[in-house]
Amino acid sequence: MIRVNLLCQLKSGEHTALKQFLSDNLATVRHFSGCLRVDIYFDEAQNCMLIDEDWHSVEAHQHYIQFITTNQVLAHLLSFFEQPPQVYYFSKSPL
Asked: What residues does the ABM domain cover (predicted)?
């Protein structure tokens, strides 16, 4: 299992539209092959969002990114951000 964190700096005044976009699109990612979990966190004071996901593998997540790039969903999501998100892949430690 891989944990994927995307830290996203949001454009000011986009929270309502972004939340509707996420509401309309999260079911697709949650049902995509290889996705185990997706949770969304907001820090409205800092105008940022954390997308916290669990995937079977990095490749499964990258396959999803390719899918949403092709169908333009990624471009729409990025339109809510000041800059591209910071993406982190974590492997669980046996500690």
From this structure: 1-64
Structural domain boundaries enclosing 79: 2-91
Q: Is residue 44 within 8 Å of 15, Cβ to Cβ?
A: yes
Token representation of residue 93: 């430690």
**Contact assessment for residue 14 and residue 47, using Cβ atoms and an 8 Å cutoff:** no
Number of structural domains found in the chain: 1
Distance CA 47, CA 7 (A): 11
**pLDDT tens digit string along 30-74?**
999 999 999 999 999 999 999 999 999 999 999 999 999 999 999
Beta strand residue intervals within 1-95, DSSP E: 2-9, 35-43, 48-55, 86-91
Q: What is the CATH number of the domain that holds 51?
A: 3.30.70.100
